[in-house]
Specification:
DNA polymerase, domain 1; 2 domains; 36% helix; elongated; binds S-adenosyl-L-homocysteine; binds iron/sulfur cluster
C-alpha cells in the first residue's frame, strides 16, 4: 500500500501528494512531525482548490511551505506537451518520475456539461491488439494509483475545468494492473469527488480482473472491448482471446452483472473486411442477447507501421450503418462512437502514434 511507501521513500526523493488519500496525507504530516489538521489543509488545497504549488497555500505560513517543498511536491507527473484539437480535445503528454511517458486526454462534448478524462493505467500494454498503437509499444510498467489519479488532477489544474467522467481507455490494460486501478477508483470517488457511476473501466477481456472488479462492488461501468464475435477473428485482433476464450468471457460478464446490476458497454472496433461483415453483426447480436448491455461501435482510427502505412482501413459510413442496424436486432442500443481529436492522434488507439518510439 502507498501508506507504507511514504515512510519508505528516501529523504532525497520528493513525495508526490496529489493522488494520496487523506489517510496517506495524515501519515505524511505525522512523519514530518506536524499536527494532524495539516493533512486536511493539504487535502483541501490539492483536491478542492487544485493548488499547483505550496506557495499558493497561504494559510500554511512561509516556513512550513518551505519545509513542505523540501520534502514533497504536488504532482507526480510533469507535463511535457499539450496539443489542442480543433474540436477542443486536449491531449497531454506527461513524464513520470522515472521519465517514462504516458498520455491522457480531456474530451469535451457539446451536448454534455461535464468533461471526460481518458486516463492511462500502464506504460505500454502487453495485450498487443493488432489495431492499437499502444499495443505495438509493448509493456513497460504499471502505473501506481497516485500516478493514475494525478492524471485527472493535472488535467484539472492545467485546464481549470472540472472533470466529471473518467474513462480508463488510455494506454494500458487496466485489468492487468487491477489492484492499483481499484485503489485509484476509490481515490477518484473519495478524494477527487467523481461519482462511481461516472467512471468506466475498459478491458480487453481479462477474466480474473473482471471477477476481481465484481468483488470490489464499486458502481463503475465495465466496458468490454469485444471487437469480434467469432473466435478466429478475435484471436487475430485481440490475441489474449487464446487465454480467455469468448464463451468464458461472456460467462464472466454475466457473473459481473449478477453482482453489480450495472449495464455493460460492449466496444467493437470496425475494421474493413475483418470485423465488419453482416454475419459478424448478426453473430454479435446473438452473442450478447442475454447480457444487459449497450453496443458502442468504434470505426477504426488509423495506426501506422514504420513506413507510415495504416494497418487497416475504416469501413464506409454505409457499412458502419448496416452493421449497426443488424447488431441492434438484439434489441440493444447500438451507437457509433463520435470521433474525438483524430487530428492530434488523441482518438481511441492512437495514443503513442506520435511519441511511441
Ligand atoms: N486496454 C483497454 C483500454 C484501452 S483501449 C481495452 O482494450 O479495452 C480503449 C478502446 O479503444 C478499446 O476499446 C480499444 O479496443 C479501442 N481502440 C484501440 N485501438 C483503436 C483504434 N486504432 N481504432 C479504434 N479504436 C481503438
Ligand atoms: Fe492494450 Fe487495449 Fe491497446 Fe489492446 S486495445 S493493445 S488491450 S491498450
Amino acid at each position: 500500500m502507498e501508506g507504507n511507501k511514504i515512510s519508505q521513500s528516501p529523504k532525497s526523493e520528493k513525495l508526490a501528494l496529489s493522488g494520496l488519500s487523506l489517510a496517506e496525507l495524515e501519515a505524511f504530516v505525522k512523519e514530518m512531525g506536524l499536527p494532524k489538521f495539516r493533512a486536511k489543509q493539504l487535502h483541501t488545497w490539492i483536491y478542492s482548490k487544485w493548488a499547483g504549488s505550496f506557495e499558493q497555500m497561504t494559510d500554511l505560513g512561509a516556513d512550513l511551505r518551505l519545509k513542505l517543498a523540501e520534502r514533497a511536491k504536488i504532482g507526480s507527473l510533469e507535463q511535457k506537451h499539450l496539443e489542442v484539437s480543433k474540436d477542443g480535445t486536449r491531449k497531454y503528454l506527461f513524464a513520470l518520475p522515472d521519465k517514462k511517458l504516458v498520455e491522457s486526454v480531456l474530451m469535451t462534448f457539446q451536448d454534455r456539461d461535464s468533461l471526460s478524462a481518458c486516463v492511462s493505467s500502464q506504460v505500454g500494454c502487453a495485450v498487443g491488439c493488432s489495431f492499437c498503437a499502444t499495443g505495438y509499444l509493448g509493456f513497460k510498467r504499471n502505473l501506481s494509483s497516485t500516478e493514475i489519479v494525478d492524471q485527472v488532477m493535472s488535467i484539472q489544474r492545467e485546464s481549470g475545468k472540472r472533470v466529471g467522467n473518467v474513462v480508463y481507455m488510455g494506454q494500458g490494460e487496466p485489468l492487468l494492473n487491477t489492484e492499483n486501478v481499484i485503489e485509484s477508483i476509490h481515490k477518484l470517488i473519495e478524494q477527487v469527488g467523481i461519482g462511481g457511476r461516472h467512471i468506466t473501466v475498459s478491458t480487453s477481456g481479462i477474466i480474473p480482473g473482471i471477477r476481481r472488479l465484481a468483488k470490489e462492488k464499486i458502481p463503475v461501468t465495465l466496458a468490454l472491448s469485444l471487437h469480434a464475435p467469432d473466435t478466429m477473428t478475435r484471436e487475430e485482433v485481440v490475441p489474449i482471446t487464446k487465454q480467455y476464450p469468448i464463451a468464458e468471457l461472456m460467462e464472466s460478464l454475466r457473473e459481473y452483472q449478477s453482482v453489480s446490476n450495472r449495464r455493460i458497454t460492449i466496444e467493437y472496433v470496425l475494421l474493413a473486411g475483418v470485423t465488419d461483415s453482416a454475419d459478424q453483426a448478426r453473430e454479435l447480436a446473438e452473442l450478447v442477447r442475454d447480457i444487459n448491455c449497450n453496443i458502442n461501435l468504434i470505426p477504426y482510427n488509423p495506426t501506422f507501421d514504420e513506413s507510415g502505412v495504416a494497418y487497416y482501413d475504416r469501413p464506409s459510413i454505409d457499412v458502419q450503418r448496416r452493421f449497426a442496424n443488424l447488431a441492434s436486432r438484439s434489441g440493444k442500443t447500438v451507437t457509433i462512437r463520435l470521433e474525438r481529436g483524430t487530428d492530434i492522434n488523441a482518438a481511441c488507439g492512437q495514443l503513442h502514434n506520435a511519441y511511441g518510439k
